[in-house]
Amino acid sequence: MQIEQLEIFTEVVRLGSFAAVAEKRQLNATSISRSIQALETELGVKLLQRSTRKLDLTEAGETYYQQILPILDHLDQAKYKALDIKQELKGTLRVTLPLGFAEAQVVPLIPEFRRDHPELKLELLITDECLDLVQEKIDMGVRIGKVSEENWVARPLKTLRFVACASPLFLQKHPFPEPGALEQLPCLNFIAKAEAKQWRFHHRRSGKTETIWINQVLLATHEQAAKSLCLAGEGIALLPDWLVQEELQNKRLLEVFPEHDVLYLQAGNQIWCTYPNREYVPAKTRAFLDFLQERLGNKKAGKTPA
């Protein structure tokens, strides 16, 4: 049994097909199939149930998969420790980031990080889906709001400020309202966020807090679409400040409730850097975490522990 066979097996489970693994490894699908067959022959059990449409783990395959994951993880950690002795960042760093934040805040910084670490290959998994860091073999992730996953270390990166905004055209028709008016005025929102139906308003001077069930007239799956609709005068949207910074500066959008702090109810306003809870954090992960902290976050947070 070879380590490569185990790695191929876990990749097939994770990616769901021989073809996907073959493409990733720049091999043909037949080679991947033969590797799995050789592993099954050596073990004397069937690991995968193959059909024309998909691959499923057998009961034995599921047990075997769960047992070898921590073993492969320990081998990776041993490799990282050995590489870090050389004090050179090499290999591949896999990072998952939410789409809007990645495009607006992180991707523009990547060339600078690459200049500092030219030997390090970056894989940016930009998606709003909450990927499992361990099963997907991801080194670190950026999360907005609450981090509920177990066995992850969550390090605060920065506080997120939301802005309730609208276009000048919209506000000509609906002059700056009080928060309660949002129960009737058209609002733009997100399909996937149940908490997005309620916006919480905190008046900075009086300290008064109120929660409003907004009038959702247009729903989108992503904040960029809500921003575009907001610019078109279709309603009021509650968006991250980094997404609308330029539009607020050039007055294409106006802040509707400048005396209030506004949040989605129970959504949280913290941006986190997360990574698997392991005994040893590889130097490549520490370097990227510290880089993001220096460029985007709270300076007082300090360096990532080894």
From TrEMBL:
<dbReference type="InterPro" id="IPR036388">
    <property type="entry name" value="WH-like_DNA-bd_sf"/>
</dbReference>
<dbReference type="InterPro" id="IPR000847">
    <property type="entry name" value="LysR_HTH_N"/>
</dbReference>
<dbReference type="InterPro" id="IPR036390">
    <property type="entry name" value="WH_DNA-bd_sf"/>
</dbReference>
<protein>
    <submittedName>
        <fullName>LysR family transcriptional regulator</fullName>
    </submittedName>
</protein>
<dbReference type="GO" id="GO:0003700">
    <property type="term" value="F:DNA-binding transcription factor activity"/>
</dbReference>
<dbReference type="Pfam" id="PF00126">
    <property type="entry name" value="HTH_1"/>
</dbReference>
<dbReference type="InterPro" id="IPR058163">
    <property type="entry name" value="LysR-type_TF_proteobact-type"/>
</dbReference>
<dbReference type="InterPro" id="IPR005119">
    <property type="entry name" value="LysR_subst-bd"/>
</dbReference>
<dbReference type="Pfam" id="PF03466">
    <property type="entry name" value="LysR_substrate"/>
</dbReference>
<dbReference type="GO" id="GO:0003677">
    <property type="term" value="F:DNA binding"/>
</dbReference>
<feature type="domain" description="HTH lysR-type">
    <location>
        <begin position="1"/>
        <end position="58"/>
    </location>
</feature>
<keyword id="KW-0805">Transcription regulation</keyword>
<keyword id="KW-0804">Transcription</keyword>
<comment type="similarity">
    <text>Belongs to the LysR transcriptional regulatory family.</text>
</comment>
<keyword id="KW-0238">DNA-binding</keyword>
